Each structure stands twice: as C-alpha cells, then as structure tokens.
Amino acid sequence: MNILLTNDDGIYAPGLWALEKQFSKNHKVAIVAPDRERSAVGHGITLHDPLRASKVSVNGSWGYAVNGKPADCIKIAVLELLDFKPDMVISGINPGANIGASINYSGTVAAAKEAALYGLLSMAVSIQSFDIESYDEAACFTEKLSQDVYKRGLPFGTLLNVNLPDLPLDKIQGISISRQGVKKFSREYYEKRIDPRKKNYHWLGMDMRSYGRDLEIDGDALAQNYISITPIKCDMTDYAIMEDIKSWDIQKKFKC
User: Fold this and answer.
1) Please, which of 68, 175, 226, 240 could form a disulfide with 221 given CB 3.0 to 4.6 Å?
2) How far apart are CA 116 and CA 234, in angstroms?
3) Which tens digits make up the pLDDT trace of 6-37?
4) Which residue intervals define the domain Survival protein SurE-like phosphatase/nucleotidase in the entry (predicted)?
5) Are 20 and 5 in contact (CB under 8 A)?
6) Which helix (H) or strand (E) holds 114?
C-alpha cells in the first residue's frame, strides 16, 4: 500500500516514527506532519498565513514538517506534496487516549477525518498513556489492522478511531468495536494565576472521570484493557430528530 502518516504531536514524535518503522517494511510511506506540538487544535485549517513544508531527516528517514495544523498536513500532502495517491492515511500514534467527547478537540482524529473527506481510508491511533516506553507493538497492531481496512474498505466519510491500553498485546483483554462515549471530564476548571509582570492569566485543568463497564462504549472498554475501535462519520447530521424539527412549522416564522 501507499501510506501517508501524520499526527498532531509534531514531526519528531516517537509514535509517528514507530509507525514509519513498521509500515516501511512492506509499504511505500510518506510522512507529512506538523512542525511542532499541535494537540487539541481540532479540525482547524490555516487560511490567513503562508503554509510552509520543509524536509526533515530523522534516523535516516525523512518527512515534511508543516507549519500548520494536522488537517493542513493532509490537505497539502494530497494536493501538493505527494507524487502518489495514498491508499490509506494513519494519524498517530498519539500519547493519550482520544475517546468520548475529547475526540471533538483532537488534532489526531481531525487529520484522519480530513483524509476521509478526500475519500481516503483513514485511522486515528492512540495509546492510553502519556508515559509510553515503546510504541512498537501498537504500530504492529496498526499495520495488521490496516490490511483488513484496505481489504474490506470503509464508506465515504467514515474513519476508524483506535485506542489501545498501554500494555503488551498479550496482556490486552481483546478488541471492542465500540461507540463514542458522550461524557466529558468529571470536572473542568481554570486556575487563575499571576505572571511575572503581575498580570492575571488562566490555565485550564481537567479531572479524569471514572468509567463504567459497558464494553460498547469506547472509554469503558479501554478502562477494562480492551482495544477500542470506533467507526466515526464526518457527517454530523442528527437524522433521528430531523423529522421532529420539521414538525415545528418553522416556515411560518422566517419573516421578521
């Protein structure tokens, strides 16, 4: 396969290069990633600043470092940088899970969504830890999963959001094909602080919530040491409520 790799942690992130090491054994690989940390930037793109892509060498391999967001990396890769069409785009491997409501903020997931909007097969891959000793087994699993995705395909605008426990594969309980949870953090707050110039600023803090035991919910499955695989659609329409809203008779209210 022709594989495009990206992330939101930056071109030098170890999870990205673990994927490159694994996929380059049997596939043609290109890397286009942000030139710095871009976590939690969501699906933003660059409109009012010049976008620059520079070749960067890491451990004998190379990729493009882009001074933009993860979605920018997909756009410029597909439209400008690559001399081939990717068969698949993989975003990751991200340190820290992307589950529940947090996927709405995730640059990792946004890059995979952008690829899906171009009609490309795509996956976002994360590990439930910020202190990861090795990404190698997660990269191996990702490569095997990619073969199934390539063989079977996905509908247009659909991607896979994959989250792994930070455990050796032989310690993982199994795989859960799960839905996205809707709950956010158990508590969000801003700490009010004072900088060296005596001016106030605020720093966002979050307390992680506890999870239940429903293996059909991404966070619950991950908490029980299952790999969570969630199909996500770019189409965010709530079809279930469309007919109800039509019954509101809004047509009579559009004149002011």
Assistant:
1) 226
2) 8
3) 999 999 999 999 999 999 999 999 999 999 99
4) 3-185
5) yes
6) helix 107-117
Q: Which amino acid is present at 200? A: N
What is the rounded CA–CA span in Å between residue 182 and residue 168?
Answer: 28
Strands 121-127 and 53-58 turn out to be unpaired
Q: Are strands 53-58 and 2-6 parallel, antiparallel or unpaired?
A: unpaired
Q: Which is it for strands 121-127 and 158-164: parallel, antiparallel or unpaired?
A: parallel
Q: Are strands 88-95 and 121-127 parallel, antiparallel or unpaired?
A: parallel
d(CA 89, CA 60): 22
In the chain, where the domains are located: 2-182+212-253
> Per the annotation, where are the binding residues for a divalent metal cation?
8-9, 39, 94
Q: How many CA atoms lie within 13 A of 242 on its CB side?
A: 5
Residue type, 163: N
Here the tokens at position 62 are: 């190379």
pLDDT of 235: 96
Residue tagged 């409109």 (tokens):
47
Q: Measured between alpha carbons, how far is 235 from 154 in angstroms, rounded to an integer? A: 14
CATH of domain 2-182+212-253: 3.40.1210.10
* Greater model confidence, 215 or 238: 238
> Which residues does 220 contact at the CB level (< 8 Å), separation at least 6?
178, 181, 211, 212, 213, 214
Which tens digit of pLDDT belongs to each residue from 33-68?
A: 999 999 999 999 999 999 999 999 988 899 999 999
